[in-house]
Amino acid sequence: MTATDAFDCAAIGVETSNAESAHRFIPIGKIAPPVLKQRGQREVFCGLTGIIWLHRKIQDAFFLVVGSRTCAHLIQSAAGVMIFAEPRFATAIIDERDLAGLSDANDELDRVVTRLLERRPDIKLLFLVGSCPSEVIKLDLSRAASRLSWQFDNSVRVLNYSGSGIETTFTQGEDACLASLVPPLPASSAEAAPALMVVGSLADVVEDQFARTFAALGLGSVSFFPPRRSTALPTVGPNTRYILAQPFLADTARALEERGATRIAAPFPLGVEGTTAWIGAASACFGINRDKVLSVTKSARERAASAVSRLRLKLEGKRIFFFPDSQLEIPIARYLSRELGMELVEVGTPFLHRQHLEQELAMLPTETQLSEGQDVERQLDRCFAANPDIVVCGLGLANPLEAKGLTTKWSIELVFTPIQGYEQAADLAELFARPLLRRQLLAA
Length: 444
Description:
Blueprint: H1 3-6, E1 35-39, H2 51-57, E2 61-67, H3 69-79, E3 89-93, H4 96-99, H5 105-119, E4 125-130, H6 132-136, H7 141-151, E5 157-162, H8 172-181, E6 195-199, H9 204-216, E7 222-225, E8 240-244, H10 250-258, E9 262-263, H11 271-284, H12 290-296, H13 298-315, E10 319-322, H14 329-340, E11 343-349, H15 358-363, E12 370-374, H16 376-386, E13 390-393, H17 395-403, E14 408-410, H18 413-416, H19 425-443
C-alpha cells in the first residue's frame, strides 16, 4: 500500500477563511499542466550557497571550499558578518601558482587542513567542497578526502562534494552534500522495525515541531537527515521509509534508495494543506489513520488557517510570476494558488523532477504555465508582457525588474527562512504580502 492509498490528498481538508467553520474538501486535478522547456542563458547562484544553511544545521561539521577569492566573497556576502562566533566554513584559496602548476595543490590542501584541525579540534566532520576553479584544474577532492581521513586516523570524517556553479543551481549544493553523507550512514539491522527518516535541512524550530507532532501520533522511531551532530547519523536500510522535506534532493533520494530505503510520496509541507498531507502520508505508512492525524493536528491547523486567512485578504487575486531559481517554486505556487487565491502567471523551475513533484503538479490549476530550465531573455519578455503584481526571482534580476516598475521577492529568502509546517504557514504568506505593501507605501 502506498501512502496516498491510505491518505488521499484530495480529502485532507483545507480550512475556509473562517477558522471555526468545518473543513471543506477541494478536489485535485489529475492532469498535470503542460511544461515549456527552455535551454538558453540562465542566472542563478552556485551550489556553494547551500553552505550558509548547512553549516548552521550540522553543528560539529566544517565546510572548506577549495576555490577562488570570488568563492570566498560569495559565501561571506551571503552569510553576513559574524562578529561574536567563528563560522564553520572557510575557503582554501587557489591562487596563480596553483593554476599555473608551480605548486602542488594537494600538498597545499593538506597543509591548510592540518592547520584548520589544529585550530578547531571540535570539528568531527569536514567537507571538502569543490568549486569551478578546483574542477578546472582537475583537483581530485575525492582522493584528497580519503587521504586526509587516513592521515587523521579517522578521528575526523572527511567527505567531499561539488558546489560548482557550472552545472548546478544553488539548492543543489545541499543535495550534493547530503548525497555524500549517505554512504557513511550506519546500516540498520534486518530485524529492525520500520523507521521514518525526514530528509532535508529544516530550521531547528521546525524540526522540533514536526518531532512533537510525530510523537503525538505515536511514531516513536523518527530521525532527521541531516542530523544536528555528525555523531548522530541515522541508520538506513530496507526498513527505512523516508519522506522528503525539500523538493531539490534528487541525488540524495537516489543514494538512499540504493541503500534500500523507500520513499513516501507526498506533497511538501508548505501551508496548511501541504503540511497536513505530508504528515498524513508519513503516518499512513505506519498504519495511523486519517482521523487520528486530523485530531492530533486540529489545533495547529486551525491556528494556521486563521492566520493565513487574514493574509489572503491582501493576496487574493494578485498575479505572480516565478523565475526558476530554487526548485521550491512549484510547491510554493501550489500553496499561494490554493490557500491564498493568487493567480499563477508562470511558474518556472530550474529542474522538474516529475516523480517527486507528481502530487504537487496534480494540485496546480490545469491552465498553469510551467517552465523548466531557463532562457532568461525570452522569460523576461514574457514577464514584461504579463505585467504581474509580484515576481519571484534571483538577486541578479531583482534590481533591474524593480527599476522597470515590477515588485519582486528574492527567491533565496524562501530558502533561508523557516517556511515549513503549520506555525510557519502565515510567515510564508507574509513574505509575499510584504513587498506588495512596500510598493503601495512607495506609491502613496
